[in-house]
């Protein structure tokens, strides 16, 4: 099972550069889901990569919210919040504020 998760993670990471350039929801969801599927088994090291993946989850969450899929949006926002550094309220205040506001918004619905 761990091997499968790593495989999904590797697929997502190999397609990750496309996510930054794509405006298509389908590819954003696919890439984010692949990365998230294996993120627990991979040791995502480095704060830059963790923040990038958190940003990708935030982007997918916003797109899911815009489609009124609040439960899926909440899962993307939850994963994004878990990827933030422990001192995120100090080191990444704006991103933290935005993310938790989005999370609160979709939780309300």
Written description of the protein model:
- The chain is mostly helical.
- Helix content is about 80%, strand content about 0%.
- The protein has six helices and no strands.
- Helix 1 (about 1-20) packs antiparallel against helix 2 (about 25-40), helix 3 (about 45-65) runs antiparallel to helix 4 (about 70-85) and helix 4 (about 70-85) packs antiparallel against helix 6 (about 95-109).
- It starts with a helix and ends with a helix.
- The mean pLDDT is about 90.
Q: Mind describing the biggest β-sheet?
A: none
Radius of gyration: 13 Å
Structural class of the helix and strand makeup? mainly alpha
The rough form would be described as globular
Query: What is the number of strand segments?
Result: 0
- Approximately how much beta-strand content do the residues carry? under 5%
Low-confidence sequence ranges: none
Estimate the mean pLDDT confidence: 88
Summarize the amount of helix as a percent range.
over 70%
Helix/strand order, N-terminal first: HHHHHH
Summarize the structure.
With 109 residues, the chain is mostly helical. The protein has helices spanning 2-21, 25-38, 47-66, 70-83, 88-91, 93-108.
């Amino acid at each position: 099972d761990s091997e499968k998760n790593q495989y999904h993670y590797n697929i997502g990471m190999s397609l990750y550069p496309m996510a930054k350039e794509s405006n298509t929801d389908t590819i954003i969801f696919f890439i984010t889901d692949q990365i998230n599927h294996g993120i627990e088994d991979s040791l995502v090291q480095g704060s830059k990569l963790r923040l990038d993946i958190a940003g990708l989850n935030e982007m997918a969450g916003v797109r899911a919210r815009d489609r009124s899929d609040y439960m899926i949006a909440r899962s993307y926002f939850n994963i994004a919040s878990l990827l933030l550094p422990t001192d995120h309220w100090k080191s990444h205040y704006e991103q933290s504020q935005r993310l938790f506001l989005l999370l609160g918004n979709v939780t309300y619905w």
